[in-house]
Amino acid sequence: MKTLPENRLSGVNELHSVNTRITQKGYNSFLLLVAGLGGLLYGVDVGIIAGALPYLEATSGLNAGQLSFVVAAVLLGSVISTLFAGLLADWVGRKFLMLASGILFVISIPLIALSQGYGPLVLGRLLQGISAGLIGVVVPLYLAECLTASNRGKGTGIFQWLLTLGIVAAAVIGMFFSIRVEEVAKLGNADKLLAFKDTAWRGIFWVSLPPGILFVIGSFMVAESPRWLLRRGKTEAAFAALIRSRTHEQAVLELKEMENAAKVETAKASTMGGRIKGSLLQRKYVLPFVLACIILACNTATGINAIIGYNATILLQAGLSDVHAHWGYVILTIVNFLATIVGVVMVDRKGRKFLLSVGSAGVVVSLIFVGALFFQAEGLRVDCRKTVQSLVTSDQTLVLAFNEDTAGRLLADTGKAVSGPATLTIIYSYGDFRAATKVLRSDDRAAKPIEITCYSCLPANKIVAFFSNPLADLNTARMAPLKIENALLTPVPSVRIGWLTVAGLFCFMAFFAAGPGICVWLALSELMPTRIRSNGMSIALLLNQAVSTAIAATFLPTVGKYGYSTMFFGFGICTVIYFVTVMLFLPETKGKTLEEIEEQFEGKK
User: What's the structural domain count of the chain?
Assistant: First the structure.
């Protein structure tokens, strides 16, 4: 048998090594692509309904209660799936759950887009919510367990980056169809306009189908998490999964670390007589879990969801025109997308702690700046509650056209005056359920009258009512009278103040996207040890959703009663807590394996 010369053998080995590195690099890039598609689906789930809802409302024949449940079905599905996502990920595996979440999303699109009634719409939206909840847990979990320490930050960053792209895409798609609808409306044919609106909301959902199909294909092609495989006793399969994204030496070293960590867990469990509950009270479990929960709660308490969701309303109240306010929302989503790129580039270079510290500090300054701008105008607001209450009809409804004459009459009864155009916001309630009208400007001649009925305030059913106010009685509220809690007439700030507010909100968005927006998913997946990672992530995300729901329920009533300045200052205080927590308690996890991070919390050097 002939042997190759030594120099030729060396060349063959070197060529094999190069080919192996190219294959590993290609697989790592593929992992990042799949992660990005997961983020894209999550962003589409969050943002797609905003553009479709006006046309769905105009053509579906559904009442306000049914429409509200169609919107809220995603939240319900997300809460349910988040609650069980960790258990499912441990039971069936990360890869299978990713595949299942993608299939659920793909099924939901034709269900919604082809629906001819209320039932299929709700079912499709529930499936979208279930898909989003699973993706929010399993994709960051999978990335943390599969990517190398040097790529883990980039991978999770790309998940967030394409999540923001999904929100931008939803906004742009909605804007595209709104322009088309406006063009059809100019033809003056009511039947064609109604038919196109029906086509528009269905088309908005159809456009989101291709990313879902690609995510399913990508999830099918990736390897299972090596850490999940090892915990199932499949050592050879775990090594095979590692070798696809690492060199042979790295795979051997990391597998050894994983095996050692598993042996330590087994030894501790046996010495404690198998008492798992006692072992979960160890420092290395409690500290990272509590820290991850605080970071997630504070991340939402920055007001990010409220500022994105009510951005157009905030800018209208700040003094911008309706057109400029809506374009401001589109640009805000673009700022979010672009600033996230900065975070993706820097997260594995500067580290998580640096980005979170700088980002949260910038968010605090931006919130205080915007709050101070609103504080000036809101000091001049006038409450016309008694006058508006007297206009409520015997059937407990209110219809009020707000213009300059109406503003003058409302002010005349209070004995106060406001110079120039003004805005009106009415905070009202039926029983224990509160709502607020859109902000109307007295100089907007095209604005529709305010229409307040119990359908505009009360949840569609007891399920939605529970998430809106767990302590409220829906049946009692349906029989309750309409109570005007505040009717706040506020002078419109100058256009200069409006553009300063835009600048402040854009700075807020940039600092948030480059810091907390990127690092929150890393904190969620990196900090917690392998044994509690999946279930711990589910619990932390549920807490995050609870904070988000609480802010959504209190935002408009608080703004109506105390003003935007109070809300922005409150968000600023919460972000100060965020900053202090990061500076004092968060360890730097850049470049460390998950087992090294676990040992760090255990107190080992």
Answer: 2
Q: Is 326 exposed, middle or buried (0-12, 13-18, 19+ CB in 10 A)?
A: middle
Pairing assessment for the beta strands 433-436 and 398-400 based on DSSP bridges: unpaired
Please state, in angstroms and rounded to a whole number, the distance separating the CA atoms of residues 24 and 150: 14
β-pairing verdict for 398-400 and 422-430? unpaired
Chain-centroid distance, C-alpha 404: 39
Q: Please indicate, yes or no, if residue 67 is contained in any of the structural domains.
A: yes
For residue 407, tell me if it sits in a domain.
Answer: yes
For residues 426 and 438, give the distance between their C-alpha atoms in angstroms, rounded to a whole number: 8
- Residue 374 CA to chain centroid, in angstroms? 26
570 part of a folded domain: no
Cβ proximity of 155 and 35 under 8 Å: yes
- For 524-535, letters b (16+ CB in 10 Å) and e give bbbbbbbbbbbb
Structure tokens at 541: 């995300």
Q: Name 488's bridge partners.
A: 383, 425
Q: What angle do CA 510, 518, 44 make, to 5 degrees?
A: 85
Q: Could you tell me the residue range of the domain that residue 470 belongs to?
A: 382-417+421-491
The phi and psi torsions of 431 (rounded to 5 degrees) equal 65, -130
| Beta carbons of 531 and 330 less than 8 angstroms apart | no
Ranges under pLDDT 50 in the chain: 1-4, 8-16, 18-19, 274-278
Q: How many CB atoms lie under 10 A from the CB of residue 599?
A: 19
CA distance 589 to 522: 9
pLDDT in the model for residue 269? 55
CA dist 335 and 440 (Å) reads 27
- Other residues' Cβ atoms within 10 Å of the Cβ of residue 300: 22
